[in-house]
């Protein structure tokens, strides 16, 4: 039933959360107008195209396919109406730095000595993965099976009762039915402690914890509940949408267009004024008058920059005391030839990544021995690079708010490329034909992100579920929020769901 007919709604920002909200509101009959400060829709899921190369600038993992299927089904559509999926094999490859050794002489080809590091492929074949775990630790294969059973339980209960149902008040958790559903969930404790209950070998612990990067946390500050991400990884699988995540953005935006949503790019919001039923969103192209406003812009930016002080739900001190997910140092590279040592998704992990996390969350500085991620979409998609070339990007998680100068970027770029050569056997340095960089200042300038965080608020225990900022403004009737800073949180699937939850709030209030 279309219960918002006659309502005009402005959505500020076209990230995944904003695009999703727009679809649900338009489907309910509202006249929805999305404005976006940048030249393309997608928010942090932007695309970079240059000289025949194409890159996803932000998210690059297609996880939780069930969430996408549910979203499109809500509008009597399927993902396959818009894009095709490839199940990646391997899901990802891990290079452990500690086992890297150098030969004392050049190899037969006369090239520089190559590293021979300890390498693990995580594949769709669970029995094969269990066998790999057994090689590191007796009984680890069976432990993996038990771990994934718990992860599946957390995922199924958590998604149905705590993700798709937005419980924003403490009393929502005191309900007997909620307590029954929550029984047995890994609600307390850290991921580090939870993983240690199953595996002793540090490398196996790292494999089970790497997904914390997607949540913007560390093993010590992320609740054990998020072991559900291992079900996402091992059981639901890692996929690639043809055309990358940008193709998913295009699909969601197209659904919106089909439902009547209009989009304005290169139109930033500079202020939100007025009240419910009579809002004015100021832009350089003139005011946009609307009944309701949904902000998919950075939550802190919206409150601190777009609203007057008397209409802010939180003061500056609140935002200063939050724990933020990392920023990132990114290299987008077009290179000659193949990079066969690398998989579509590759992770390079130091022996002790605790120090890297400390240099993000405890003692912010550029990491001395970083853990990082390399994405090579050209391993799967021939259309993202010219013939005879590879397209890849490198992402190093770093602390938000770090000093970010051209000189620092130059130095760190050289260190990272040398590290890739040393620990994966892939030397890119003499083959680069295209190079673009993105870092703290770019996140702050392009996305108005607080301190240049790449993701927003981290998923610490005190910033999970009802402890995240709400979808409804605390101070302004008719103003709503969507995106990763709200519930359910960080990541493309979660932001897609946040749009549904935001629309539900609008419908409860106005429908």
TrEMBL record:
One of its GO terms (molecular function) is oxidoreductase activity. Pfam families: Amino_oxidase. One of its GO terms (biological process) is carotenoid biosynthetic process. It comes from the Archaea. Keywords: Carotenoid biosynthesis, Oxidoreductase. Pathway: Carotenoid biosynthesis. This is Phytoene desaturase. It comes from Natrinema salifodinae. The lineage of its organism: Archaea, Methanobacteriati, Methanobacteriota, Stenosarchaea group, Halobacteria.
């Amino acid at each position: 039933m279309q219960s918002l007919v006659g309502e005009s709604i402005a959505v500020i920002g076209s990230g995944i959360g904003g695009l999703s909200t727009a679809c649900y509101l338009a489907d309910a009959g509202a006249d929805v107008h999305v404005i976006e400060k940048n030249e393309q829709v997608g928010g942090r899921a932007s695309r970079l195209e240059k000289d025949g190369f194409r890159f996803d600038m932000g998210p690059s993992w297609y996880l939780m396919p069930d969430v996408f299927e549910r979203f499109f089904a809500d509008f009597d559509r399927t993902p396959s109406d818009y894009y095709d999926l490839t199940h990646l094999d391997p899901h990802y490859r891990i290079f452990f730095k500690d086992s890297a050794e150098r030969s004392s002489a050049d190899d037969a080809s006369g090239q520089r000595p190559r590293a021979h590091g300890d390498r693990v492929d995580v594949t769709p074949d669970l029995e094969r993965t269990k066998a790999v775990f057994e090689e590191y630790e007796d009984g680890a294969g069976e432990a993996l099976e038990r771990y994934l059973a718990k992860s599946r339980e957390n995922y199924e209960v958590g998604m149905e009762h705590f993700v798709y149902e937005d419980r924003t008040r403490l009393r929502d958790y005191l309900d007997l039915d909620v307590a029954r559903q929550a029984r047995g969930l890994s609600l307390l404790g850290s991921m580090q402690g939870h993983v240690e209950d199953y595996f002793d070998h540090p490398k196996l612990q790292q494999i089970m914890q790497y997904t914390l990067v997607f949540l913007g946390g560390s093993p010590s500050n992320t609740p054990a509940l998020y072991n559900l991400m291992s079900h996402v990884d091992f059981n639901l699988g890692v996929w690639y949408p043809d055309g990358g995540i940008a193709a998913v953005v295009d699909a969601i935006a197209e659904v919106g267009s089909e439902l009547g949503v209009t989009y304005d790019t290169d139109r930033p919001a500079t202020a939100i004024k007025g009240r419910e039923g009579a809002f004015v969103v100021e832009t350089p192209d003139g005011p946009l008058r609307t009944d309701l406003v949904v902000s998919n812009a950075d939550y802190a930016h919206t409150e601190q920059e777009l609203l007057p002080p008397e209409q802010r739900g939180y003061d500056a001190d609140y935002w200063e005391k939050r724990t933020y997910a990392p920023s990132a140092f990114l290299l987008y590279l077009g290179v000659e030839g193949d990079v066969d040592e690398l998989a579509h998704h590759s992770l390079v992990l130091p022996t002790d990544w605790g120090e890297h996390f400390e240099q993000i969350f405890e003692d912010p500085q550029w990491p001395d021995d970083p853990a990082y991620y390399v994405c090579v979409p050209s391993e799967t998609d021939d259309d993202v690079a010219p013939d005879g070339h590879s397209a890849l990007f490198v992402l190093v998680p770093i602390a938000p708010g770090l000093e970010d100068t051209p000189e620092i970027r130059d130095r760190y770029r050289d260190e990272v490329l040398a590290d890739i050569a040393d620990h994966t056997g892939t030397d890119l340095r003499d083959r680069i034909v295209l190079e673009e960089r993105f870092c703290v200042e770019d996140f702050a300038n392009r996305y108005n992100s607080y301190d240049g965080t790449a993701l927003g608020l981290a998923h610490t225990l005190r910033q999970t579920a009802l402890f995240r900022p709400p979808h409804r403004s605390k101070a302004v009737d008719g103003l709503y929020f969507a995106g990763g800073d709200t519930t359910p949180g960080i990541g493309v699937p979660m932001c897609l769901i946040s749009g549904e939850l935001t629309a539900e709030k609008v419908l409860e209030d106005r429908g």
